[in-house]
Amino acid sequence: MKRWLTVAVAVFTLALYAGVIVLGVRLGPQGMGWVGGAWLGSMFEPASLQHPWHVTPMSRLSPAKLHQVQYGWELFNETPVYGTQYTKARIACGNCHVAGGIAPYSAPMVGTAQAYPKFSPRAGRKITLDDRIEECMTRSENGSPLASDSAEMVALKAYINWLSEPHKDQAKFIGRGLEPLPVLTPDPQHGAAIYAAQCAGCHGANGEGARRPYPPLWGPESFNDGAGMNSIDKMSAFVQYNMPQNRKGTLSAQEATDVAAFIHAQPRPKFNHAYDKY
Ligand code: HEC
Ligand code: HEC
User: pTM of the entire structure?
Assistant: First the structure.
């Protein structure tokens, strides 16, 4: 009987591995997320689909630059610990710009520095990288703007520049920005059922989030109603490729749209119009 059990467990484990590998091949790096994509991708994917994005090793940065990049890393990835002076949301920049800001299809910081200054339809003018960071500070982080010469702004820019810096020999980064889904008619009621079954376990029954790293999706500690994520289009595009975090790429475009519509209908903080210029 015991031996039978051992064999059953072994078969089950193998089946599980096979499933992961098949999924890895089928979904590719966007399906498996950056970390999964990096190691599974390197084994199974054609070179054109890999993301061989590398940054200058920290050991090669000057001491002054290293200090800025490290502080930027902390502010970006542990915002609710290091940035509370400026932010009210309990969400790290890196909770939306996933894997420290280099996961494809999550508005990564790769190539971002070079894209600015650029025209912003929201602001109706050309904006700088500073302005774009302030937009996420005042909207996505429900916080206040940083002084342009503050150690925090300098550090965030150093970190984004460090991630953005292209290297000769580097392949084009696939998955810049957010990949919009086809326009579908949302069904928030169906979204509520998906939320309860597939999201509440990590984000809480009332969207309140949980212990780090599980951020809130609505309520007083979430992003405000001026944030980019406060749109069904942007959230569904994010969710399709990045959520549920343990089963990325398993929702259909319709399901991602429905669950985003349900979340969109929940209460959240109001954008402070004193910061309208951002
Ligand atoms: C609630 C989710 C969320 C949080 C938190 C967040 N952002 Fe963003 N951010 C977005 C979205 C959505 C976009 C727009 C993506 C698009 O439309 O392509 C964006 C865009 C950006 C861009 C422009 C990217 C580009 O390539 O043009 C920068 C820079 C940026 N965010 C920095 C930050 C920083 C720094 C923080 C933390 C202080 C932060 N974000 C926190 C959601 C978020
Ligand atoms: C296994 C846990 C887990 C599950 C299940 C899960 N998430 Fe997440 N979610 C996370 C984590 C962790 C993050 C932070 C980003 C990261 O590290 O991938 C996140 C980030 C997010 C964000 C961006 C940050 C914010 O606060 O707005 C959204 C939106 C989101 N999840 C929506 C969903 C939706 C919708 C579902 C269900 C379809 C879902 N998540 C299921 C763990 C989970």
Answer: 0.86
Alpha helices per DSSP H over 92-231? 93-96, 112-115, 129-135, 151-164, 188-198, 200-203
What are the pocket residues of ligand 1 if the criterion is a CB atom closer than 6 Å to any ligand atom? 76, 79, 91, 93, 95-97, 107, 112, 115, 132-133, 136-137, 140-141, 156, 160, 177-178, 223, 227-229, 234
Kindly list the structural domains of the chain, giving each domain's residue range(s) and its CATH number in brackets, ordered by start: 1-50 (no CATH), 58-175 (1.10.760.10), 178-278 (1.10.760.10)
Amino acid identity of residue 36, one-letter, is: G
- Residue the block writes with tokens 């915002």: 79
pLDDT in tens, 31-45: 333 333 333 333 333
Q: Residue 89 and residue 118: Cα distance in Å, rounded?
A: 27
pLDDT digits (tens, 9 = 90+) for 62-107: 999 999 999 999 999 999 999 999 999 999 999 999 999 999 999 9
